[in-house]
Design brief:
Helices cover about 50% and strands about 10% of the residues. It has 6 domains: about 5-25 and about 95-255, Rossmann fold (3-Layer(aba) Sandwich), CATH 3.40.50; about 30-85, no CATH class; about 280-440, no CATH class; about 445-590, Rossmann fold (3-Layer(aba) Sandwich), CATH 3.40.50.300; about 610-710, no CATH class; about 960-1160. By secondary structure, it is an alpha/beta fold. The two termini are about 70 Å apart. About 40% of the residues are buried. This is AAA+ ATPase domain-containing protein. It comes from Paenibacillus taichungensis. Pfam families: SIR2_2.
Length: about 1150
Amino acid sequence: MKQQIIEAIKENKLLLFIGAGFSQPLNFPSWNGLISLVLKGLASEDDKYKRLEDVLDTGLFTSLEVLDKIKDKKKQVYEVLYREIDKSLDGLNLELHQKVGKVSSKIITTNYDRLLETATNFRKVVFDNTFHIANLQDKENFLLKLHGCIENPEKCILFQDDYDQLYKETAAIEKLKNLVADHTILFIGFSLSDEYVKKQFEYIHAIYKGFSRQHYYLTVESNASEMHGVHPILLNNWSELGPFLDSLIEIKGASSQISGASETIVGNIAPALPSLIVKEVSIALLMAAPIDQENKPYFEKVTKHLAKFKVTIECFYFSLEVLRNLEGFNYIIILSQTVKDKIVIEDQYLKSKLITLEEIEENLISDLLKGIFIFTDKKTQMTTPSISIPLAVLWETDLSSVFFKLFQRKTLNNFINGFIVNLEKFDLNLVEKGNSKVVTRIDESKQILSENIDAKNLVNFVGRKTDMEDITRKVIDTNKQVLTIKGSGGIGKTTTVKKIAIELFERGFYLDGIYFIDCEFITHYKSFEYKVAQCFGIESTINLKEHILQNNIELDAVIIMDNFETLLYIKERDEVKALVAFLCDYVNIVITSREWVQLEFEERHEMRAFTNEEAFELFGKYYKSSLNTEEIKILKEDILGKLLNNNPLAIKITARNLPKSKNMAVLKKDLEEDFFNITKDDYEDIFDDETDSNIERSKSLYQSIAYSYKSLKVNEKLLFELLYLFPDGIHMNNIKNFFSQSDYKRDSKKVTDREITSLENKSLIEINRGFIKLQSIIGRFAEHQFVKRSEEEKVDFYKRAFYYMNFLGKMLYKMYHADRTLGLKIFDQNVENFIKSYSYITAFDDDQDEKIQFIVITYQMFDLIHQTQQFSDKIEKIKHHFDVAKSNVLFEVIVANAKYNEGDFEEGYNRLKKSVSIEEMYKLDHTVELEKDIVNLALEIYMYSNVNEVRKFVKESNFHNQWNIIRLLFYSGEYGKIEELLISNRKKISPFTLMEMKLNTNKLEYDELETVISNSFYRKEYTQLMQIHYIKAKMIKLDKKTINRLVVTDRYTSGLKSLMLAFIETDEKKTINFYENAIHDLQSIRYYYTEAIYYYSKFLLNNGLDEEKNWFNKGLLLAEQNHYSFLHHKFNCLLEGLELPYIESQYILSEMFQLDSIIGLNKYTDIEP
């Protein structure tokens, strides 16, 4: 006897699966015999069926294939089935059938006959009885007739389509998967030599595949083998079946005696007391809100009335997929509408679909189901003859009263507006009072929804049904294509796409996120690539495509690229298109544009113009005063249709700027006379860029914006035009904090909540999750108004913008040192704002020292997120505007530092030497902030390749910078002095340096390193992450997948990555290639260049390869010359063939290189790259 079966019986985890062979000894036909009988009957009427009978006999066609040929004869098939299976059972020996009931109380059968239920008296459950299937685990015994029962032959599973439907879509199968997850299955009566039975097994296998338990089948075939994960148990002949079952019954009996005794003991200790009030109640709230439906319900319609009950309410959108996956809820509440006495549900494209109550039951499963309540919008009459679940359909409006009756009075009586099905099956609980817990997809999901998409900005969305339906379908179905949504400016492309994005997000589509890239201000390819890489979480990589390919990063995500037409007119437009083409294989791309992108694989949707009725509806959303018939006519025909061209943005802006009870005739006159005079003010200049060749040039947009702008107060105009200088927008909290400073408290032009609210109410700004931004076209108008101002006024604007950005830069720099992750995250949200600021800080001459410090601080922040290229380009253009002493040297050093850190080591180093040599640094005054910055930035590069000269400089010039000193001490292996320095100055060092030091002194615990990796870095600190994983790779072998995920930002990180790959590579040639690539990439970072040579030498030595001596000598010489004491020690160990601990005292530096004289001075700056 198989031990697994014995254990399963003892644990009551044995599930018997009975097939047709179990009934055949009692003269019930085999499956092929049954089909033959059907064909014989049909052949008597038509000879062609005789040929099918021959084909079945020869085995050329399987029985299912034959049945498919005669499925138009279903009536005759069912008649034969009924005649042959529904026989009298009188006088039949059911001893074996009785025995299986004694072996297990859990039986599943594919047989249609009534033998098992007659022999065992088990509760019979047919596959389509969803309610009883949901409660199988609660039953003492059950007989599940998976393929139906002869009592209802037309519902029996016979044809191929029946099998496909049963095993792929029904709630019964989903329940069975859960049921058998921890059960052992014993198949009896299945002959695997029968092709039909083999086919059945393929279907049944879908139930138990993926579960860890072993399953078995009884057979008398000596050559039987494992099939679909089921192992054979061999009997000599079928006469041994009875004794085999007897042995199982004996095991069952012995097990029951043992468990029965223990149950008695437990029962005597603690008798259970009935609970009067249920403390934990779970409710699934389903809402049908198809995108093509008006007057949609909302979750709060129910949740607010359950707020004072101690219940957990999980909210879902009502679809078949959601219904099939519901499990473990006490009650299900459905909010929907009825059409033609059917319930509205959402289809796979979020559109309306109608289903019956029977279809709801067929697709529903829940173990703890105590009642289902469907609330509809109106009275309905539905037929419910076959409903077996406890169901109430109500069109009550007073939901508070409904829930009081259900959960406080526990009654379903006195509901006039509705009907109840299976009243006796409801199980109503007295629910404890308290606070409800409401859970939505957004609350529970870790999905990402772009911060540029804010649902509150779309509450007044109207119309666009056909656009919504078509775009939604195309977005969901898009496969390795780009979906381009084309339309003129202000027509509603962005709004519509954002609305669809929210609908999809709320329903759980795109688990990896919905991203939004505004292309309006992107002027070169690198910026575009960076924005795209952000979506993949690998921004700053120098090889985006390679990284995606190498790691096969396919995102279940959508990237929305808004205002894409801008990118079609930059120099690198072909590179942009090529990247989009590449991305299509890895993520879904949706583009909004004023023109087609002209990609070969471009799926297209062209936005239609607003209808007059939609325009009228939108106007009514923002203008609430009542209008008479004549005014409505003027509004529709003259104002909306002719003057505003039914443009949604123009309508929104105009409507939100009207005073109450504005007469439409007066408005028309305003728009015709005053308004048109305003537009003569060279409005076409706003849209004269090459990118605007396809923009709608009607005056409606300009007119509406100008009409609104004219009514703004001085400070409102200030904020409106100021926003033009902030492409990323301004966060409300930051701008309010800025103007709350003492310098601005009495400023007549300060910005407060009043100005922000006013602009938002006039639809001139959008606020997305706290960020205030101008819509694209409105931004053009703001720029146009700004350009028209006097030079004096512009300077005033520039100063305010700079002072704000300087305030933000200092705040973020301080924040970074307190919280690395938060500081860099907020800086990253303002990258374009900082880039823009370098364009206007030279517009006024004062505050040059302040501007230079601003540039130094922001450079360090850009360097931390590996985005110095744009910064360098801007600095190159403005560096000549400064006349502060040595400022030209500082800017040259900054650009050289940027080049070096970008991986262009040669250009960076050569540019630095031309700007300031180490000898020239002796002449700089370290007490002057600017000159001290020059030294700090220059030393950062010189330290990598001229460490001895740097050491002498630091000592002789008494230059105090903690990062430089710690790095020098680290290179020389003087770890004890670092510890003393940290203790005496109470300073911190970078996690990488600290972990390296601990590793080299055998003090690093693996768990400590894991904690650092998890908690110490912002996800965009790619260099830090690469470095810390390099330490990990020196401790243990990393897997290739982990290494490949690390982002390469320059040659330094590329070198470290190659080293890690070399550590794990098993192919000799590939290993050599990795080591030599690492050495090549690291040659300008001298310490790690030397360490790479050490590891390569060790590899060559261990494998007895040539060149080992040359590489060893080269590495040893570098370690000695640069006083890399720890590496010197490692080379010595390699030479002696020993692994000895590093002892600092064995490697003392000469006096001229020791820094002891300045270590004790508490004068260190905190600058640390």
